[in-house]
Design a protein that fits this description.
The chain contains twelve helices and 17 strands. By secondary structure, it is an alpha+beta fold. The protein binds zinc ion.
């Protein structure tokens, strides 16, 4: 940590214009205390590391559970100096006694009070949610910033995200998903946006890299992205997954595959309308190929008309049965998996796969039989994606 109090309660921040000899001299004449647990802490000034305060061995301060690495500290310092240079009056490591929390940086931007948490180590989901809720209750908007080095990039437009990293998801004003991240080594912001889950871990995404020296504060607080999802990429990835599911037919313990085979459906022959990206799909941990297949099996693909509430009920019973898992997105309190189901129905209507029947009911249009040949499904898929546009996907 970079901030402590002296015996007189004076706040001392190690980032600033103090020279090393000045700090050493100051250390001779003062004791330092942790603002959080009030224990005595040690000012460490070495040649390699950034000067910092450290608790003594055996300390029970919650701060100690997050041993800050050099990477973390240097990132925090760069972010702080950048905000300061932008004239935003940030406060480094403020302590909020009413919630007993100490984010990395406190800052106001365009009338909103933010707490920045530059999180470089894993903490439990419970702790993440607890801290987030405490901030929100106090009227502070937390922004959790991921350590750039922990990003597992899988090519130009793909990423592997852990459950922990998914917690960082924010929604830009434009409605687009974004995980903000920062890397002190390359001194750059990396905004991961347009995140569209393919499987539990893998997702299609865009990367927006900006050196901090050229970055405007909006990059962090109110990011804006203009690209849309890359449909060619999406189509390729979904095809790969369907093919690999077919090759996994030996793994019959998989409930999803069992469900498909018991209905004589080969995963590779699943039609292209199963496995589509919808805006709120990050609320569902299970692959879209899987949750959309279940909706077809249970409701949409049947001959009788159905309603949206029936779709939702079928989805919920799959959740209850553990066939579908929901994901919590603590930083966004306005959406849910129900939005994803509604959006999926809208896309099916836009694509003419489902049409309005009598009041409040829908019906699948032509109940085409399963294509029997792989080459045929590939052709259908190509035609399908040729006709699909962002407008159809987003209902605009
Ligand atoms: Zn402490």
């Amino acid at each position: 940590m970079l901030v402590a109090s002296t015996e007189n309660g004076v706040r001392i921040c190690l980032i600033g214009s103090h020279s090393i000899p000045a700090l050493q001299q100051y250390r001779e004449h003062h004791n330092f205390y942790c603002p959080e647990c009030k224990e005595k802490v040690i000012m460490k000034i070495g040649k390699k590391r950034i000067p910092h305060f450290s608790h003594r061995k055996g300390s029970e301060c919650p701060e100690r559970y997050e041993r800050e690495t050099e990477y973390h500290m240097s990132g925090k310092v760069l972010l702080f100096q950048w905000l300061k240079k932008k004239g935003l009056n940030p406060i480094l490591e403020p302590f909020y006694p009413e919630i007993s929390q100490r984010p990395d940086i406190d800052v106001h931007y365009e009338g909103v009070h933010y707490a920045l948490e530059y999180q470089c180590s894993n903490i439990s989901e419970e702790l993440f949610i607890k801290r987030t809720e405490a901030y929100l209750k106090t009227g502070i908007v937390p922004i959790w910033i991921l350590a750039g080095k922990s990003i597992k990039r899988m090519g130009k437009a793909k990423i592997s995200l852990s459950g922990f990293q998914y917690l960082f998801l924010r929604q830009a004003a434009s409605g687009h998903w974004v995980i903000p991240s920062f890397c002190p080594t390359t001194k750059s912001f990396i905004n991961i946006h347009h995140i569209q889950p393919l499987t539990v871990r893998n997702a299609c995404a865009h990367y927006d890299v900006k050196p901090i020296s050229q970055a405007d504060p909006a990059i962090l607080f109110t990011p804006y992205f203009k690209n849309d999802i890359n449909l060619d990429e999406w189509k390729r990835e979904v095809r790969k997954i369907k093919n690999s599911l077919s090759q996994n037919s030996g793994a019959i313990r998989n409930n999803f595959l069992q469900d498909l085979y018991s209905r004589s459906i080969a995963p590779a022959l699943l039609p292209p309308e199963i496995g589509l990206p919808v805006r709120h799909s990050p609320y569902i941990e299970t692959s879209p190929i899987q949750w959309q297949s279940y909706l077809f099996m249970d409701i949409v693909g049947k001959a009788r008309p159905f309603s949206l509430p029936q779709m939702i009920a079928a989805f919920r019973s799959r959740v209850k049965n553990n066939d579908i898992k929901i994901r919590s997105i603590p930083l966004v309190q306005t959406g849910s998996e129900i939005h994803a189901i509604k959006e999926y129905l809208d896309v099916l209507i836009n694509l003419n796969i489902v049409k309005h029947a009598e009041k409040g009911l829908y019906k699948k249009t032509a109940l085409s039989g399963e294509p029997e040949h792989y080459s045929r499904i590939i052709q259908i898929e190509d035609d399908f994606y040729r006709g699909i546009t962002q407008r159809i996907l987003q209902g605009k």
